[in-house]
């Protein structure tokens, strides 16, 4: 079970590294293709806002990476749980305010991993 948990933590981490790249470096090029409901002319003026969001996603990825590098398994899972909870909360908020798909892409993998951690620890 621990291996599955670590794989899922790695998946969520990689997902947030992708979001960092997308929001910080590809917002004006890939953004209009992904967010088709938004007017194309909205992307250049919101580039700095998207980059700021990307940076926060990078911090989440860094925290999850850190949790994988901690040798003590209990401490590692506590750190992972904190960062996964941050991801889940951000995903739930995004689903409520921006689009329901965010829940399934961002929050659900984090929530599943948190549940598995709780089952493994207790």
Structural summary, described in words:
The protein is mostly helical and 122 residues long. It is elongated and about 50 Å long. The model has no long low-confidence stretch (mean pLDDT 96). The relative contact order is 0.15. The protein has one domain. Helices cover 83% and strands 0% of the residues.
Structural class: mainly alpha
Strand tally is 0
**Fraction of residues in β-strands:** under 5%
In this structure, how is the largest beta sheet organized? Answer: none
Low-confidence parts lasting 5 or more residues at pLDDT below 50? none
What is the distance, rounded to the nearest whole angstrom, between the alpha carbons of the first and last residues? 13 Å
Helix residue percentage: over 70%
**Average residue pLDDT:** 96
How many domains comprise the coordinates?
1
Secondary-structure element order, as H and E? Answer: HHHHH
Helices, by number, come to 5
Note the overall shape.
elongated
Compute the CA-based radius of gyration. Answer: 15 Å
């Amino acid at each position: 079970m621990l291996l599955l948990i670590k794989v899922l933590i790695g998946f969520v981490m990689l997902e947030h590294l992708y979001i960092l790249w997308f929001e910080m470096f590809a917002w004006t090029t890939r953004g209009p293709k992904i967010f088709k409901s938004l007017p194309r002319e909205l992307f250049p003026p919101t580039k700095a806002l998207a980059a700021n969001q990307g940076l926060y996603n990078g911090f989440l990825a860094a925290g999850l990476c850190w949790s994988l590098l901690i040798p003590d398994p209990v401490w590692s899972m506590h750190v992972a749980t904190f960062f996964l909870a941050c991801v889940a909360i951000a995903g739930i908020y995004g689903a409520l305010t921006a689009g329901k798909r965010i829940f399934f892409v961002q929050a659900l993998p984090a929530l599943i991993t948190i549940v598995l951690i709780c089952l493994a620890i207790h």
